[in-house]
């Protein structure tokens, strides 16, 4: 029996007819009616109080990450497929979750569903956790009575998207980490090590080599202005992030430029096309209209330039153009995707062809990551050798030339 929307959840504790301490919860319009329901259950209540409502702000104190959402989706899909009702499935999911913040979050969803909200509407209350794609797919599953199948598709979609993101992070994290470490080591050498050598050089009483004087000058500047340098870097990063979040024009320009960066640009472009293809295939196969699917796919690309291209073909499709024809008129979409889309539209199997396109581009991303990693390792090692080795040579060069100095 579904509870009306104006009812609230109350928790109680007390003793049953046998004297055993029990606790639980009931739904009622007010506290007085809740006490009456508890008495009907044969419980002498010590406490009847409204159940604390978890808000988005309280849940955000500890953010629910994407891995936890994937696990929750997969678990919920499994229980629904086993025939458990949605509320019971949410109860089981909460009970079997070890992380308290996830358990609290699932119970917040459960309580909203218990008072009559649809599952998709409950999810839309947490837009920073569940995006439009997730909510639209859940809504489509509820309407068609295939929520278990839809959640299974969502979980598969998320898992593939997670693997794709992990591969991109793998390609970007290694060089960034090495460069940061190299910067820290270089700064330590310039601020702490070079001055010690400088004191030794002062006792030589002769002119130092040009390269050594250059490094000493950099060291002196770093000792004087290291705070300014660090502050300037932090300020530049902060201004960049603020400008990107506030200015669509700036964000678009950056995303467009990134795609032209050697090696990395191709990797990011392939990733954006793979996510577009996978999202479009998943949403369209769920029965979501093509224009809405293209809207969702644009947001899933992760690149504003590619997203604008997707919105461009959406406008052409809305005017009656076929999807593959709209793609051909835009140079941002690769020929393979155009051909597979054409075959899919002609054969009435568009979602199948788009899934194949996504698989192909995800494989291309994996290959690109492996190639990039293989190329970057010797390049980074050479860079470190030049920077760190150059500093060492500059410090020891006067010692090598002791004969000339004295």
Structure explained in plain terms:
It contains 17 helices and three strands. The model is unreliable at about 1-5 and about 55-60 (pLDDT under 50). The protein is mainly alpha-helical and about 400 residues long. It has a three-stranded antiparallel sheet. Helix 8 packs antiparallel against helix 11 (about 265-285) and helix 8 runs parallel beside helix 16 (about 350-400). The chain has helices spanning about 30-40, 55-60, 65-80, 85-95, 100-115, 120-125, 130-145, 145-200, 210-245, 250-260, 265-285, 290-300, 305-320, 325-330, 335-345, 350-400, 400-405, and strands at about 10-15, 20-30, 45-50. It folds into three domains: about 10-50, Ubiquitin-like (UB roll); about 55-160, Type II secretion system (T2SS), domain F (Receptor-associated Protein, Up-down Bundle), CATH 1.20.81; about 165-405, Up-down Bundle (Receptor-associated Protein).
């Amino acid at each position: 029996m579904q509870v009306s929307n104006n009812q609230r959840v109350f928790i109680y504790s007390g003793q049953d007819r046998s004297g055993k301490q029990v606790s639980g919860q009931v739904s009622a319009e007010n506290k007085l009616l809740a006490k009456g329901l508890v008495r009907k259950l044969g419980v002498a209540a010590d406490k009847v109080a409204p159940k604390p409502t978890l808000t988005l702000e309280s849940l955000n104190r500890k953010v629910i990450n994407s891995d936890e959402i994937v696990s929750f989706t997969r678990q919920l899909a499994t229980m629904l497929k086993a025939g458990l009702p949605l509320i019971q499935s949410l109860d089981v999911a909460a009970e079997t979750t070890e992380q308290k913040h996830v358990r609290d979050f699932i119970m917040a969803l459960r309580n909203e569903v218990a008072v009559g909200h649809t599952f998709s509407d409950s999810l839309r209350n947490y837009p920073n956790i569940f995006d439009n794609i997730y909510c639209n797919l859940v809504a489509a599953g509820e309407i068609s009575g295939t929520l278990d199948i839809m959640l299974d598709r969502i979980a598969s979609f998320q898992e593939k998207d997670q693997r794709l993101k992990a591969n991109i992070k793998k390609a970007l994290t290694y060089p960034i980490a090495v460069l940061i470490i190299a910067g820290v080591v270089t700064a330590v050498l310039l601020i702490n090590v070079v001055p010690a050598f400088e004191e030794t050089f002062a006792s030589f009483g002769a002119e130092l080599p040009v390269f050594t004087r250059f490094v000493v000058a950099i060291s002196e500047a770093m000792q004087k202005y290291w705070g300014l340098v660090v502050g300037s870097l932090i300020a530049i990063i902060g201004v960049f992030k603020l400008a990107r979040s506030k200015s669509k024009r700036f964000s678009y320009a950056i995303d467009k430029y990134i795609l032209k960066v050697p090696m990395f640009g191709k990797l990011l472009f392939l990733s954006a096309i793979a996510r577009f293809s996978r999202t479009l295939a998943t949403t369209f196969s769920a029965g979501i209209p093509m224009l809405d699917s293209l809207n969702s796919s644009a947001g899933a690309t992760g690149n504003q330039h590619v997203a604008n291209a997707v919105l461009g073909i959406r406008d052409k499709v809305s005017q009656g153009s076929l999807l593959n024809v709209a793609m051909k008129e835009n140079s941002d979409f690769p020929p393979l995707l155009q051909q597979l889309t054409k075959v899919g539209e002609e054969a009435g199997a568009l979602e199948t062809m788009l899934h194949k396109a996504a698989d192909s581009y995800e494989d291309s991303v994996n290959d690109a990551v492996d190639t990039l990693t293989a190329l970057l390792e010797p390049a980074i090692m050479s860079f470190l050798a030049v920077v760190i080795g150059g500093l060492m040579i500059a410090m020891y060069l006067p010692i090598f030339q002791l004969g000339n100095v004295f």
